[in-house]
Target: Ubiquinol oxidase
Amino acid sequence: MGNNQRILSSMPDLQNDNISIHRERERMATALCCSVSAITVSSLKARNQKGFHCFHAQNPCRFNSLTFLQFNSRKLYPVQATILQDEEERVVVEESFRPKTSPEIEEEGSRGESPDTPSSSWVIKVEQSINVFLTDSVIKILDSLYHDRDYARFFVLETIARVPYFAFMSVLHMYESFGWWRRADYLKVHFAESWNEMHHLLIMEELGGNAWWFDRFLAQHIAIFYYFMTAFMYAISPRMAYHFSECVESHAFETYDKFLKAKGEELKGMPPSEVAVKYYTGDDLYLFDEFQTSRTPHSRRPKIENLYDVFMNIRDDEAEHCKTMRACQTHGNLRSPHSYPEDANEDEPGCILVEADCEGIVDCIKKSVASP
Model:
């Protein structure tokens, strides 16, 4: 009996201890919830600045696990949707130029063949690094010689700029002689590009850019060296040669653009070049449309009212050359704008000719040996 009475007398103390332990657990749980909620709030606020109010106004840390789960399920998914939407907006970027492709090229692309494999990516980087170094070196020389003589600089640029197209056609004609090449579109477009650059050169000569003997001597000898270098480069790696030409055309575009911004008002008061008027506003603009492979024929018809319009159109021509050279860097991707007549019937099957081609002289020799 004595033991039972002692046990019964100690029961209130045990109950008080249990209550205190229970309260202590509640305080620990509350503190833990507060810390978790603080971390969650900070992370969610960093993602979404809208904020939220899901806690009790009197005690913001007084909520149970069910409330916390409901908050997560209600607020977390909209934040994730916002993040995905932002990422989608960054990923979807419209290309400024989408080159036209032939049916056989589209079939090759549908097979999942990638032109830039990991094994060739470092080769492309090396080729482009060499091209950028060569271009920057020539630009520094021209800047030091022609920093205050614009027309003379343009004369040198246009003498050099048309040389690569001569080199491309020379190599392609050699391939045709051996039966390695039968893509006429390349020859048509490259000739149209050289025709365009020739008229740029005639305009600069009319403006007096070739008045000095030194300028003519420098431009012509650079052109000779540039021709053989480009022909050799094109025979080894057409992709590298096209990228180098793109670098040159890009520099020409930037040069004319700076010139227009610096002397635009002065040029607007000067009469246009007669060569420019005949070339840009003549009756026969077939070759003018031919080198602009990113445009449909007849979509660009310049107006020539003053010298500003002349240089503005020359600048735009250089931009079109850049687009064409960029398209050529993908093998077999170049198509003549006149190869897609507007009145052609798509339902007619027509006659599809197999066009022989190759990518560099090494590839040409391999295909000629392998073919029966």
Q: What stands out?
A: The first helix runs from residue 2 to 47. Confidence is low (pLDDT under 50) at residues 3-8, 36-115, 343-354. DSSP finds 13 helices and no strands in the chain.
